[in-house]
Amino acid sequence: MTPHSPLVLSADDLPLAELLAARLDGEVFGIGSGFASVAELEQPQHRAASLGAANSRLIAEQRTAAWIWGVLTRAPERHEFCSTLTERVAHQSSRFITVREVVLDPDDVVTLAGRQVTTPLRTCLDLARFSSEFGRSERAMVRDLMNLAGVGMLDFTRHLNRRRNLPHKTVALARLTECVAA
Known about the structure:
Layout (H helix, E strand, L loop, with lengths): L15 H9 L3 E4 L2 E4 L6 H6 L9 E2 L1 H7 L10 E6 L12 E6 L6 E4 L2 E4 L1 H11 L5 H14 L3 H8 L8 H13 L1
Helix pairs in contact: 3-4, 4-5, 4-7, 5-7, 6-7
């Protein structure tokens, strides 16, 4: 890879056969749906850049954001994205991607390699609010994200109390309390 090569290569950059051959030769490694140089240490920017095929106005959230932040070792089978109510990104959900409209504050999102991603704090809150099941793996994700971001229950409570009538707030607080206590 040259100094001007993209962080993550895809079939848009080189033919897939060449990328696969480079992987067999040990020059690149697979990351998400792309390939990165073995000279690089895998970072959140690489994982974010590997989502290049999805609409760039979509914001990676929940398990996809957890993977980007490095608390999941494998990308989720179905990537989770959101858009703000003001953006109204036209993108239909499929078997590989889900998209929902949400209300986000500016400090809920960061940009990594040109891709918007929910912060570890916001990712914790969304996992606690919207996970249909909240078992061992979900609690581990939240605890790892908490450690990564250096946040705790006071941060969660403040963030959740910024909005009145927030759906699943009580459930989230109970789940987050469980994570903090463990």
